[in-house]
Queue: 2 jobs
Job 1
Amino acid sequence: MDAIFTANNVWMMVCTALVFFMHTGFAFLEIGLTRQKNTINILFKNIFIITVGLLLYYLVGFNMMYPGFAEDSSGIFGFAGFLIDAPANGMTPEYADGGYTWWTDFLFQGMFAATAATIVSGAVAERMKIGAFMIFTIIYVGLVYPIAGSWKWGGGFLDQMGFYDFAGSTLVHSVGGWAALVAVWLLGSRIGKFKDGKPQAIPGHSIPLATAGVLILWLGWFGFNGGSVLSADPELTSLTLVTTCLAAAAGGVIAVLVNFLKYKNLDLTMFLNGILGGLVGITAGADVMTPESAILIGGIAGALIVFAVAFVDAIKLDDPVGAIAVHLICGIWGTLAVGIFSTNPEHTFLIQLTGVACYAVFCIATSFLIIFTLKKTIGIRVSEKEELEGLDSHEHGMDAYPDFRLNEH
Amino acid sequence: MKKIEAIIRKSKFNAVKEALHQVDVNFFSYWDVTGLGNEKEAHVYRGVSYSTSDIQRRYLSIVVNDDFEKITLDALLKAAATGEVGDGKIFVSDITEAYRIRTGEKGGATLKKISK
């Protein structure tokens, strides 16, 4: 028993490290798809999210996400107290069916928490005030994410209802995605993104970095999904990794194919977004899918990406990295797909849809409240001069590439 | 024919491009340059403030017929200015000849748009 407990915990800790490493992926992807004059700003936001997000989780997040709802409680909000305090059996196999220790539980979940804000970081890139973003992150990661998470993973009302989200298509990706949508709407598009109503291309400054970012994210997903098994169970973990990777591959291939049919070019960034869409799409049910379903879910996610990116442009929203398409649209799709394809007959489309709707209402309302208040008080958008000359020199007084500069726009 | 060389702020490039387009000047080259000038930018690196007089600008090289000289300069001066130190400079020089490589023709007509 001890050996299995150790093996389980080791796997969970490895997964913790892999999920942590995803932040590198996000950072590279975001800066690769944006202009170099804003690189320091974007990296700053990402580093802020990792560090402050984890501290917030230590301060309030963990105990708000896993408050230990009483039998008769409504399962909507609970709080087990500030700071973290391991329970008496926390380091024994009793704690989580021998899956991991309490410390591992805290850290693994803590690594997930910051991801929701990272999604918003990409969507608001190149024009949001850093101060406003930091305040938004603190409130959203500190309070909104844990409350939302408690409804399912914390044993709250959605869990009681039978709603299923294996690794966070909804709890992480669409929670971030809704906020990204609201933020992008309130922020407005970058100068020059729309001309006479038509979307203009603003190419990113480093496609190699963006590519590295996506591959790093895929690697991190081995831990994101593999660790959500919450043990090192051989069958479940290996199945999960298979469905995860197949969905990623299918997502990429279908995305680039659909893109080619629609626009007649082989677009690498769509290929990359498609991979991410597939990954997000399988995340809700990676452990309850057959390989065939995984490919189908990933493929459909890939197709959705192409249309979603076009749709976001069509409704005049500016999303530099496709965060809304990847995380919101595919997050919703992945969640609903559980109701359609899951090998577990207890998962139904209706329950999944209910969950999606609950999160939509909660996340739109809270993110709107936070960002709108910020907009009306300290302002959320940098000045025109700052935006044109780059956030790096104005918000940070620094240069990401002081030694060499590529031709900028 | 005249060569008009303008060193402008990068943030003004789109406005300048648009202004030149409005006066039917659609043919020029541009590249990013680093230069020394009057403007100082304040930078901070690991606790050390330094103002750099190595600043980033965009260099435009526009060759126009004589009758376009004034209209091009007016457009440039208006679109590229912000009123702050560091707006840039414009230099005008004479060009003795111009050729279109594709056909080998020479003269001022080569600077005009090709009529289909």
Job 2
Amino acid sequence: MSVENLSKRFGPRLAFSDVSFEVGHGEVFGFLGPNGAGKTTTVRTLGTLIAPTSGSAIVAGYALVPENGVEIRGRISIMPEAPGLYLRLSVAENLQCFAELYEVADPKDRIERALRAVKLTERADDACGRLSKGLRQRVALARALLSDPQVLFLDEPTSGLDPAAARDVHDLIGGLRQRGVTIFLTTHRLEEAERLCDRVAILNTTMRTIGRPDELRDELFAKTLTVRTAAALADPDRVFADVSALDSWRTDGAATYVLTVSDVAQAAPAVTRALVAAGADVLSIAESRHSLEDVYLDLVDHEDTEAGIQ
Amino acid sequence: MTLSRRRVRAVFRKELREYRHNGNIVYAMAILPLVFLIQPLISVFTLPAAASGSLRHEHSLLYMLAIPVLVPAALAAYSVVGERLQGTLEPLLATPIRSEELLLGKALAAFVPSVVVAYGVFALFIAVVELFAHAGVASALIRGPDLLAQLVFTPLLATWSIWVGIAVSARSADPRTAGQLSILVSLPTVAVTSLIAFNVIPPTLGVALAFGAGLLVLIRLGGRFASALFDRERLITSTK
């Protein structure tokens, strides 16, 4: 999937603008952003449900133009945030309808496989209206799997699910990745994106950043070591003066030192040796790890602050 | 552009299954025909045999042509707005289905039960009249040309009414409003059939042909109109 300068406007309201990225075959691509950032509209645009205002894209090998709508939709699957099931119909009847709409060969077998994948075989004859939210979400996922899509768009797939149900969905996504399905995942759950996605993009109407979660962390945050000693060092300047790979240091309380380093692997043993040589009683030396959430909040908060100043 | 029969059939089957489980739809399909069945039956049974002479100047059977207008209008009015309300429209439109396939499947699903109900009620009326009404009243009521008109115009009126219902449904946000509006838009057709039934418009062959031709034109235009109003993007995003 390749997206170039894609924009969508609803009258005077800009949904998203100038969005560009590429997603490789079999990649799990996370699409993050605050509410109203344009994530769902991007998914709908790439799924040919709405037309872009400008820009271009290739989805599942087809140019994103109205004439290719049927071909593209036949090769992708979209699982919207709300399951959108026919609640009066049974699980099997829901899936049967969609298997026919996708014109899959041997629909019965495909339905059985999809139900097995989401562990719902036993509930096939239950009306969807009688299922819990988590089970409905699983039915929606089974529906998305029916056509063996090349690209699977999952819009907040674990929204409103309890941790156990969310874990099941995560396991399923992991299984799909192993089968080489390209997954486009929009989510608010940053730990979910960090755990599942090969790369993530952060959108807030315009694309803020894109990359592997660890790359983004490294780009945005300096690597730091936090050193705690039993008592404050008499002359920390002298202790840290000759430590290799150390850029700077600061105190964070009476006997805690935060060291900004260029290479943790090189700096950590050197710091330990320097502290021991200085006769300090070392309580701990730990690398401060920034999460994807820190990256996200840094970007989004920064943007909010800028918007506030303007 | 070639339409996929399989996808049309999938929508058709799904719609019929939904009707079966939807009490409101079953109620709408039952109550309207009953209204149009009971009132004429009471009239027929209260008529003395001597009234058969005056009956020969009316075409009471045609009054029942209101059934294939009103029943499908109520069914079709729910077709698109019902999907929106349930949140099922987006997953449905995310499949490879074309708008025309979706509308055709929905139109067929409204057409089949409506025509079955209309013919069924009509057959029941004739059977009851033949069995229990005075012989003179029965022969005055049941006449060949009226029967033929009923058979021919029932599917035509149903089709026209369905396109009206779908067009209204595609632009409505509330099923009740859609139902009322589509019945309202269909009422002029009922008015015409009623005027013919009560001999205000004389039911000649020419009138029948003109009415039939007019309906065919309306059906063609109605289908295009409904298709044009079915704007995927607007339906998904609810922007106007």
